[in-house]
Design goal:
The complex is a heterodimer of chains A (about 280) and B (about 220). Chain A is an alpha+beta fold and about 280 residues long. Chain A has helices at about 5-20, 50-60, 65-70, 80-90, 100-125, 130-165, 180-200, 265-275; strands at about 25-30, 40-45, 225-230, 235-240, 255, 260-265, 280. Chain A is about 50% helix and about 15% strand. Chain A has a three-stranded antiparallel sheet with strand order 6-3-7. A two-stranded antiparallel ribbon of chain A has the order 1-2. In chain A, a hairpin with a 5-residue loop joins strand 1 (about 25-30) and strand 2. The longest helix of chain A is centred in the middle third of the chain and has 35 residues, at about 130-165. Helix content of chain B is about 45%, strand content about 10%. In chain B, helix 1 packs antiparallel against helix 2 and helix 2 (about 35-60) packs antiparallel against helix 3. Chain B starts with a helix and ends in a 7-residue tail after the last strand. Classes of the chains: A alpha+beta (about 280), B mainly alpha (about 220). The interface of A and B includes residues 147 and 162 of A.
Chain lengths: ~280, ~220
């Protein structure tokens, strides 16, 4: 899969090296056959960044602007990294996590921009100018990047909807973790589910006293005793493994250093996760 | 009378078994709805209620008096039996609702509807209303221009490539792709198409991914 961040940076670096070494650049490639003979293939390479790619470097959203990071050859996209960590956390935790309005809305706007860019490249391709192949390459790279981000956003939002539906009655108490659209969805889904239960079972019961859906013990809640993989981010954390209902015991408290990878009950690290002292691992 | 037997049978039916019915695309979806068992359970509840009324009328206290002690165990038994049957019915209904949801939303499953012969009338209506609800939720993220298509109706497989080589297993005729071009999908033909346009057909079984040398 093409890495837009590195591709243009590597081309720039190559061009800079070529201009420093002089006019005649000979790229020597040695190839060894299965036989004892050696063939040396010599050809002259004069790399040149096409103008359309140089223009894309100026306008593309994924190209890093910090010049220092170009020296390393890799500039992590912070927004994408944040989105990915949100996605991993949502996928692996048994309960609904808090909705990160800023990150998701920004990624949706970015996706919209990329879709418009792809549309523009498609129109340029139809005009069949001399830059047709370069336009096609740019369109493919942009499509790959958009598909990657779109999949993560889609899966994140779908996971959240699945969790909302799985424990619809329980989630009425945690609406502060949802966006406005999700709250409306919960209300609509709750009404649909209640209508279905009433039609199938409750309306056939003779007395109103037996028609309740929220009797104690009837509401399913997420299983916080599920075991998860996690890594410690903070210098030192204390994890209390005491189960709910048990007496507190110092023997159940364990101390872990930064970088430790653990398998723990989700309930024991729930508060540490919200403080970002640990992260869930896939 | 064996109280609670019908409720127990419904709950046991929720376990996975060998008698799962398959849809036309050979994906196991859901067991047929046990209409008679559900009706039997509801009749048992009605019988318990009638017994409670009979006990209350014949052995009930006069005004201002408390209920006699010897009547209370019977009343408690019938009330507990009614609540137990109610819980069994709700558990059975909830399990089937979850099966309908998972059939639509899990990654890799077909996007087609569960055949109505496997569902009750109420479940068929639930399935349609649920699909509509998910589609409405997807439309909220489309943006004003309508260019952005975030599909929340189901989970998808991670994208590995933008274009994919596919072989047609069942004829689909001519279809129009997202870039307005047309392709004729006749059985046995091999095509190199955008992944987003053909993903759903692959999951429905009309196309298969053609990998390896036999694709060329």
């Amino acid at each position: 899969m093409a890495d837009l961040n590195n591709l243009l940076a590597e081309l720039d670096e190559l061009q800079a090296n070529v201009s420093d070494s002089g006019d005649n650049n000979v790229d020597t490639i040695s190839a060894e056959h299965d036989t004892t003979e050696e063939e040396v293939i010599e050809h002259t390479v004069e790399p040149e960044v096409p103008p359309i790619l140089a223009a894309a470097a100026q306008s593309g959203p994924s190209v890093p602007t910090n010049n220092d990071s170009l020296d390393d050859g890799f500039a992590p996209d912070e927004d994408y990294t944040r989105l990915r960590s949100l996605w991993v956390r949502e996928m692996l935790s048994p309960e609904l996590m808090s909705y990160q309005d800023d990150t998701i809305n920004m990624e949706l706007e970015l996706l919209l921009g990329q879709e418009e860019t792809i549309e523009k490249y498609a129109q340029q391709q139809q005009q069949s100018g001399k830059d047709q192949h370069e336009t096609a390459l740019l369109a493919d790279i942009t499509k790959l990047d958009a598909a990657r981000v779109k999949f993560i956003v889609q899966d994140l939002l779908t996971s959240r909807l699945n969790k909302i539906e799985e424990h619809a009655l329980y989630n009425r108490e945690v609406v502060d973790r949802m966006s406005d659209e999700e709250v409306k969805y919960l209300k609509s889904y709750g009404e649909l589910l209640e209508k279905h239960f009433k039609r199938t079972v409750l309306d056939h019961l003779p007395k109103d006293a037996w028609k309740k859906l929220d009797d104690p013990g009837m509401i399913d809640s997420p299983d916080l005793n599920k075991f998860v993989f996690c890594r410690v981010l903070h210098e030192r954390v204390e994890i209390d493994n005491t189960l709910e209902g048990e007496e507190k015991d110092d023997m159940n408290i364990q101390e872990h250093q930064q970088g430790a990878c653990l398998i723990v009950r989700y309930g024991a690290i729930k508060s540490l996760l919200s403080e970002e002292k640990v992260e869930l691992l896939m | 009378m064996n109280f609670g037997q019908r409720g127990r049978d419904l709950v046991l039916d929720c376990q996975s078994g060998s008698d799962l019915s398959t849809s036309q695309d050979d994906q196991i979806c859901i067991k047929p709805y046990k209409d008679e068992a559900v009706r039997g359970c509801l009749e048992e509840i009605t019988w318990h209620m009638d017994e409670l009324d009979h006990l209350a009328e014949s052995c009930g206290p006069a005004e201002g008096e408390k209920l006699r002690l010897e009547v209370r165990p019977a009343l408690l038994l019938h009330d507990t039996a009614i609540r137990r049957n109610k819980r069994c019915l709700l558990a059975y209904t909830n399990h089937r609702v979850n099966s309908i949801r998972h059939h639509k939303t899990l990654a890799g499953t077909s996007s087609s509807m569960i055949p109505t012969n496997l569902l009750s009338e109420a479940e068929s209506e639930f399935q349609q209303a649920f699909e509509q609800l998910r589609c409405q939720q997807s439309e909220l993220y489309m943006g004003e221009s309508g260019l952005l298509s975030i599909d929340l109706s189901r989970s998808r497989m991670p994208p590995t490539q933008t274009m994919i080589q596919v072989r047609v297993k069942k004829s689909l005729g001519s279809i129009v792709l997202a870039d307005s071009s047309t392709v004729n999908l006749e059985a046995g033909t091999v095509h190199f198409l955008p992944t987003t346009d053909v993903e759903e057909f692959i999951q429905q079984g009309y196309l298969e991914i053609a990998e390896g040398e036999e694709a060329f």
